[in-house]
Every structure is written in C-alpha cells, then in structure tokens.
Amino acid sequence: MIEIDGSYGEGGGQILRAAISLSCLTGKAVRISNIRANRPKPGLAAQHLKGIKAAKKLTDAEVEGLRLGSKTVIFKPGEVRSGRFRIDIGTAGSITLILQSILLPSLIERCEFTISGGTDVKWSPTADYFKNVTLPALSLFGVKCEFEVLRRGYYPKGGGIVRVKTEKSSLNGFDFKDYSGDEIIKGISHCSNLPDHVARRQAEAAKAFLEKQGFETEIEAKVVRGESTGSVITLWRSFKGGSSLGERGKRAEKVGEEAALNLANELNAGGVVDRHLADQLMVFAAVANGKSSYTTTEVTLHQKSNAYVIEKFLGDVIKFDNRRIEIVGTGLL
Question: Of the residues 48, 190, 276, 302, which is catalytic?
C-alpha cells in the first residue's frame, strides 16, 4: 500500500486529489494520513468527500475513513469501468476540482460525467479556464475530453451543471517549447441574476487595463440564467490564464481589473505555462509515453506537493531545473 503524508508541502486538498487519481489509474491501494493538516479545518471537507465518492463509483473501490473531518483515508480501487455517472456535489463545491480526482483514470475507458455544483468559485480553476487553458494543453498529450457547461453555478448556492465526456486515450510526452502560442488575449465575462451591465463593465475594465499595456484583446460579455447569483471574468492567452469573481460590494470594474492584472503578471513573468497549469499537467505527463518539458512562471508548493505524490506512485520521474519542469513519462496510459 502506498503511504502518503497529507501534511507534506502545502498540505491541502491537492495531495488528496492527486493520490486518489493515481490510485485509480495504477490500481494501487493508498493510505493518505494527516489530510489537509495545514488548513484551519483539517480533515475531509464536503468537497473532498464528493471527489473520493466519485472515484469510488468509477472504480468500485473499497474506502475506509470516508466521512467529514476524517484525517485518514484508505482507498483500494477496483478496475476503472466505462459508463455514465452522475455526481451531485450538493453545494457550490468546485466541479473542476472534482475532475482532478477522476479525469485521468477516466481516460482508460469511455466515460460520461454529469456533475452538479460550482462552475466558478474561489480557490479553484473556473470552468472557462479549464475549457480554454487546461484542456487545450492536455490535448497535446493526447487527452480526448469534451467539456460543456450546461448551467453556471456560483457561491454559495451552486446549482451549476457540467457534462464531461472522455474517450480512451493514449498519451505521449510533449515539449511545450515547440508550441508557438497565440497572440490575442481572449476572455469571457458573464453574470447571472444581476443587471446586464455587470458583465459588460467587467469586460470593458479588463480590456482597458490590458490594452493600456499593449495587449490585443477579444473579450465576450454575456448574461446567463441560472439558479444562483454571481459574476465571473476569465481571461487567457495560450497556456496562461487569469480570473476574478464578483462579490457583494465589489465593483464590476474592480473584478475586471483584477483578472487582467492576474493574467498580465503571468504573461510578463516568462515561461510557457502559468503556475497553476504547471501543477495540473504533472500527473498526465508522468503517465504518458516519453518525456515532457515546460517552463513555468513560478515554482510553487502545490507543484512540489504534486511531485511528492507522483514520486510515491511512479518513482523519481520529475525534475525541477529552476523554472523548467522535466518529466520522464512511465507509459502507463
């Protein structure tokens, strides 16, 4: 059984998600202890509980410690099975974080997931970031995945719905220096159950900020209808993104400028992929056939924690050389 210390590095939920994902793919049982030890409320939260339950359903796994607040989980996967799966997070918990537990193993078979929860919430990739930054990067490895937002869900009500379809995929390593990249910044600004001008003002503020710095932009503003109230703007260029969420009392212009500043900082920092994507690519590169390499804007504790989990399952396959990450794929997928 693989032993994972959940307090390693940043000591958050990312360690748990990476461990469950690799356990499902490799078929190796895993014990994760000290779960989220470095968080104000340690142990499993509702979000993590749903992610493990989704992986349990996908692989007919045996699980111990599957309860709120649990600091230790033992996960014994069966074989990944094909089929249609419904996952209801029940809150505004992040749909994209749920996918970090199940997307990789779902590439073994054809799967379809309908997931309800939060599409655009704090501390997680927005749905538009996942669709326009994460998935295009993963497709270069050979990941076959369709992602469709059926309804938006914001904090605290949630109620968003996403459909994800995966095909059996054979992954190959990729050197991101071979990718030329896009020149134009693109983006989507949207709001629900708010005045229509909120989405437009977010987009206009972001556009003004970026064009003042010399960037060319195309930002779409639209009103969506859903159960929950909120607004979000997501911006991207190639493999870098930035986003910001609206909040009560926060002006739309401030939301747009925050997203623009986030992206501008990434674009001006050098490197091919942003610091968040650098983390998300690791497990896919580690199970691909052949070597992968990319430079990032910053080496983070999240990346180091992810590398720790990957090493526990697959050996010493990741090397950090300043801001370059080199991964020797194991050819498992």
Answer: 302
